[in-house]
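Lab notes, practical 5.
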Amino acid sequence: MLLTEITLINDAFYTTDVDLEGNRFRLQFSFCTRTGLYYLDLFTSTGVPIVYGAALVPNTVILDNLDLSSFEISGVFILYSKGEVEDYPNPQTFGDNFSLFYAFDEE
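Output from the prediction step:
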């Protein structure tokens, strides 16, 4: 299993481009004050939507129930809390206290 770490920053809403399994994708992160959660939207490099609104819950596998093979990705996302963090991420702690990994099996 290979891991790709995705840099997180302390911001309520931002977009970043990443390489996953040799292909470029755009990730959009948004914090919802009503639910107290961050959500992940996944797009192709040209902006075609793949996934909207995947909740980023710490220490939980994300998107494991979706077949994204048509977009040439087969892995899952995992949001880990760094150390003994007990709170959910918020715009003041997202990048400092949490790490997001993309995990996939190399063929």
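Observations recorded by the TA: The CA atoms of residues 41 and 52 lie 4 Å apart. The mean pLDDT is 93.
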